[in-house]
Amino acid sequence: STPLGVGIIRIVVGAVVLLIAMPLLGSSPRQLVPLWRTPAMLVTATTAGAYQLFFFAGVSRAGVALGTLVAVGSAPLFAGLVGWVALRHRPTLGWLAATLVCLVGLGLLTGPGLTAGGAAGFALALGAGLCIAGYNVAAKLQLDRGVSALEVPAGSFTLGGVLLLPLLAMGGSFGFARLPTLWMGSALNPIDNAFSYSINQSAREALYTPTSTDEKYKAKAFIDMFVQRLAKAVAVGVSLAITTFFSDFASLRRQAGETLRAMAADLGLGPLRRACLVRCCEVERGSERSASTSAS
What we know:
Largest sheet: none
Helix content: over 70%
Structural class: mainly alpha
Oligomer: single chain
């Protein structure tokens, strides 16, 4: 397990539990959608996701005791500074005295055992403390605006988990490149599908919003049924070309050949399905024009 994998599992499990608990406590997950458009929620989601990476990476390098101590101990310091900058809350003398004691204590506890690896872990743990501070300040802003104490973490963990999907897909790809086994490939497939059907597909479909009706029904059908499948066929061809020079990949070469033949058959049916889709759209538009004429 890697810090990225542990962090994503943690934030995803937390998001799922909170989303299940919302209807039981009289709330609805649909209420999170408008919150995701606010800057404060974007900050809490980003810091919630980034905290997972910084904290677990820092703990793996500096040790559990040192990493936790630095992350938790530095959070109040960063919270005061972030609140001063973002909320214009000037620190009091009591806060300054407590912060000074905290810094001295951290220095005494971490200084003697700090090594090269520990220094990197120390810096990552400080990043985790900064994430805690940013999350708390942005969460306070949302609570002051009337957002419930359940919606803030539910929205933050859900959106934070989605924002980590590209990193998870990248990490899975590097992991499969270093360890090309069946188990690694099986783990990479749901990761790739989760990223594709959540962020990638939603962003791609949103690009058709400002286009005309003909562009939506004709160009989109051509791209979805021909261009994407052609790209997959090219990728399989590249895989075949690479594995030709390496005899150790004979099984992968056979699998790529079967995939290429299946895609070729799929491409053969693509024009027929596109013609059917265009014809259905034309019939639908004709019906809409007839209905509007009858109404007028």
